[in-house]
Amino acid sequence: MVEIRATTCPRGLLNGPCGGALNGKCDVDGKECPWFSIVERFNVDPSTLFEEHPLLLEMEDLVERDSAPRASAFWRNIERGKAFSVEFPVAAVKGTEDSLEILEMVEADMIAIPDNPLGYPHYDPVAVACYLKSLGLKTGVMPHITAKDRNLSALTSELRTAQVFGCEFVLVTTGDWPGFAIPSRPVFDLDSANLVRLARLVFAGVMPTKEVVEVTSRPRVATTMNPHYGPKVEAKRLARKLIAGGEVFFTQVVASTESVRNIEGTLKELERYADVDVPVVVSLLYPLREEMKPFLKGMRIPVGNESFEELLEELKAVDAVRGINLIVSSREIGEWFGLLEVAREKVKEVFG
Predict the structure, then answer these.
(1) 7 in a structural domain
(2) Is residue 347 a part of any domain in this protein?
(3) Rounded CA gap, 170 and 130, in Å?
(4) 18-52 pLDDT, tens digit each
(5) Partners of 349 in the beta sheet?
(6) For residue 88, what is the domain's CATH number?
(7) Which InterPro entries does the entry mention (predicted)?
(8) Binning pLDDT at 50, 70 and 90, where does residue 187 land?
């Protein structure tokens, strides 16, 4: 183990860089990311750069066996290369009636529930996931669980809730800086790789209190891929997450063929560190309105002139891309349903 510390990281991460250091600049203070140059310059195996949280190391000694991942239509269609998930419209849903409409009308393999994107407070993702399950939703659910404003105890509770109440997936990641929208204090007890490891340990029945509980089935653990990083750095970040126990990568929003090429380049680079066929699900925004492009560029997401259909065709040609995660942009539920139907048909035409 090579012990490396970046003491000036605003998030205080054990394993960096996080997703907020595009072009080597920290999204919090605009300074050079101390982690970025370390990972970019040093030619070391990512396993030696994975600094596991001391408590998690102790928990590993108590694992007796892994629990079985839950069966889901989403995973079956990942294996077929045509998985389709839809992001829960946190900006459009105003009450129970809207949720019931989603229950009745959305045709997808899974519904993903985001966690306060960009630091704007919406709904608790695990609570929404469990609520949808309680209404009788047959489609799988995937709450996002982020480390940005939860301590180790809260993260464990969220993971345990997702496991006990039947979530098919969880997506775990560092999360956007919580103070972007309101003066909210960050936490970051764990980085994304250690959060992946915590999820796998909790789903194996081991709690941070050293209590071992009976677990028969578990959610699959998804984590994120940033196709806007350079392939050399991003491949090492992905290798860490695989070592920690990640099972599928969901990308950040892709809005150009440049990012599609980066997916291919990153996965090629990843082959240097991991001999594993890991599936990738690509997040697409629909519709990509002109007024949204400056905002995406401000987040350092490359934006091209390709149509939604052209991006789908480009992605279909990438072997590792096994599905689409659709984010429909609307603040009105009726419009959201209309746009969803149009986009879903376009995805179906390409991916089947």
Answers:
(1) no
(2) yes
(3) 12
(4) 666 666 777 676 777 777 777 766 666 656 667 88
(5) none
(6) 3.20.20.220
(7) DUF5981, FAD-linked_oxidoreductase-like, Mehydrof_redctse-like
(8) confident
Q: Is the pTM of this model over 0.70?
A: yes
Return the H-helix or E-strand segment holding 298: helix 293-298
Query: What does residue 233 show for φ and ψ, rounded to 5 degrees?
Result: -75, -45
How far apart, in whole angstroms, are the C-alpha atoms of residue 298 and residue 295? 5
Measured in whole angstroms, the distance separating CA 99 from the mean position of its chain's CA atoms is 23
266: amino acid identity, one letter: T
Residues 200 and 138: their CA atoms lie apart, in Å, by 24
Number of domains in the chain: 1
Which residue from 52, 23, 28, 53 is spatially nearest to 234, judged by alpha carbons? 23
Give the E-state strand segments of 226-338 in sequence order.
248-253, 280-286, 321-328
Domain-embedded: residue 15? no
Tokens of 61: 């000694």
Range of the domain at 234: 22-351
- pLDDT tens-digit readout, 149-172: 899 999 999 999 999 999 999 999
Q: Is residue 134 part of a domain?
A: yes
Q: Which two tokens stand for residue 349?
A: 């035409």
